[in-house]
Amino acid sequence: MAAKLIELEDGTLIEVEVPEDQAQQISNRFADKVNTTFDKIKPIIVNTCPPIAASWKEINQEWCFFYFNYYNC
Question: Residue 6: how many CB atoms within 10 A of its CB?
Fold first, then answer.
């Protein structure tokens, strides 16, 4: 997937994945304006971020366990 920059009504710039034929160089001058605000997409972020954060925490704990056991710290 390629990336594209969109601009919300409130001026917030968001990078989104798009099919290759819709990709463009990332620059705020070329951002597509969309008819939404951060408040409207916030529920999506709130629902998707906790599992990602939990996974990252678990990966980090596993890495630290490996590192400290491997290097006898």
Answer: 15
What is the pTM for the complete model shown? 0.41
Distance between CA 15 and CA 18 in Å, rounded? 10
Q: What average pLDDT score do residues 11-19 get?
A: 82
Other Cβ atoms within 10 Å of 4 Cβ, number: 19
Residue 9: helix, strand or coil by DSSP? coil
pLDDT digits (tens, 9 = 90+) for 46-66: 888 888 888 888 888 877 777
Asked if residue 21 lies in contact with residue 6, where contact means CB atoms within 8 angstroms, the answer is no
- Characterize the bridge pairing of strands 32-33 and 2-7: parallel
Strand ranges in 1-73 using DSSP code E only, listed in sequence order? 2-7, 13-18, 32-33
Distance CA(43)–CA(11), nearest Å, equals 19
